[in-house]
Amino acid sequence: MLALGVGMSSSALHADLREVVGTVLAEAGWEWDEVAVVGTTRRLAQDQRLVRLGPRLLGFDRRDLEAVAVPSRPSSIARRLLVPPVAEAAALLAAGTGSRILVPKRAGRYVTVAAAVGGGR
Question: Which of 20, 59, 80, 103 has its CA 20 to 30 A from that of 30?
Answer without folding.
Answer: 59
